[in-house]
Amino acid sequence: MKDSVDAQQNEFRKERYCTDQIVTPVVTVEQLIEWNSSLYINFINYEKVFDNVDRKILWNLLQHHSLPEKIVTS
User: Fold this and answer.
1) CA angle, 68 as apex, 51 and 12 as ends, to 5°?
2) Buried b vs exposed e over 13-32: b needs ≥16 C-beta within 10 Å?
3) Which DSSP string corresponds to 13-27?
4) Interatomic CA distance for residues 11 and 27, integer angstroms
5) Cα–Cα nearest to 11, from 61, 37, 58, 46
6) CA distance 17 to 9
7) CB 3.0 to 4.6 Å from 37: which of 1, 31, 32, 59, for a disulfide?
8) What pLDDT is stored for residue 32 in this prediction?
9) Report field, pTM of the whole predicted structure over 0.85
């Protein structure tokens, strides 16, 4: 599974938590404000992106890449 999940992905990985994904940008923004630096942030609404995905194709791709069914169906 390690090869299937990007190193930046914290969910479903031992001793990595979603809260880390929340705290990191907050700390980064605070530091950049303190340093008087510019910052550009882009947020992607994946719910809207995946709203039009053929779920059967997505399911087949996930299976092809050996993601455990337990994760795919959660």
Assistant:
1) 75
2) eeeeeeeeeeeeeeeeeeee
3) STT--HHHHHHHHHH
4) 20
5) 46
6) 9
7) 32
8) 92
9) no
